[in-house]
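Lecture notes, continued. The same structure-token format from the folding unit now serves as the input rather than the output. Read the line below as a description of shape only.
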């Protein structure tokens, strides 16, 4: 079984592999303490082949420094995607992940995409993993819907995914980098700020994120 887990080891110096995740491009580069290329990194991924003991490191960059498109590494019809968030006790927050997954499927055309919550709500990662396999996935790609690589990304999600995969020894899986410092997030944050300012000024309704909460106002 191939397992891929994102991590950011310190003081490493290694050449990356090539992979592609959605519209992201993974490029061949070197990371470590020679110069400061880590500023261009969005995340790392460590590939482990448990059968042969192979370990290597992949890095996801922001496209600077000679990035090139790799068209032969794409999500296929045999891939199942799990988009996992933290999970909330607030039902409305959990339902928003379902809406995002629907948007994601419509935009990408990927046939197998499942929502999952790391904790506090269902479906769990185990539920989503099983659903992907039942729909025909032979590889499961877990995409953390998190901003930065904290403890949940380093420990909790890999542990929960490994546990879910035990029931399906013939299915490989990987865990991608979190959202990180992607330039498109600048546009998202700026759009949220401008809309909230318009709402406070009386020129726009509450957005779908905070509709009905009454939280978007001046104090």
């Amino acid at each position: 079984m191939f397992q891929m887990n994102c991590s950011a080891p310190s003081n490493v110096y290694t050449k990356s592999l090539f992979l592609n995740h959605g519209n992201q491009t993974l490029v061949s580069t070197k990371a470590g303490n020679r110069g400061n290329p880590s500023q261009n990194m969005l995340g790392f991924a460590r590939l482990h082949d448990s059968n042969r003991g192979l370990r290597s490191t992949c890095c996801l960059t922001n496209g600077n420094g000679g990035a090139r498109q790799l068209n032969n590494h794409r999500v296929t019809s045999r891939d199942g995607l799990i988009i996992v968030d933290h999970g909330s006790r607030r039902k409305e927050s959990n339902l928003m992940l379902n809406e995002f997954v629907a948007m994601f499927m419509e935009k990408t055309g990927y046939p197998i995409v499942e929502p999952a919550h790391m904790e506090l709500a269902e479906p769990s990662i185990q539920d989503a993993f099983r659903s992907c396999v039942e729909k025909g996935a032979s590889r499961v790609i877990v995409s953390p819907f998190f901003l930065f690589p904290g403890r949940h990304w380093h420990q909790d999600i890999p542990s929960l995914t490994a546990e879910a995969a035990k029931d399906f020894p013939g299915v490989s899986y990987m865990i991608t980098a979190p959202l990180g410092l992607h330039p498109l997030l600048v546009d998202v944050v700026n759009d949220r700020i401008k809309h909230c300012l318009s709402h406070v000024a009386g020129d726009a309704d509450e957005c779908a994120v905070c509709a009905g909460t009454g939280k978007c106002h001046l104090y």
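Point for the exam: The helical segments are 91-108, 125-134, 151-165, 183-200.
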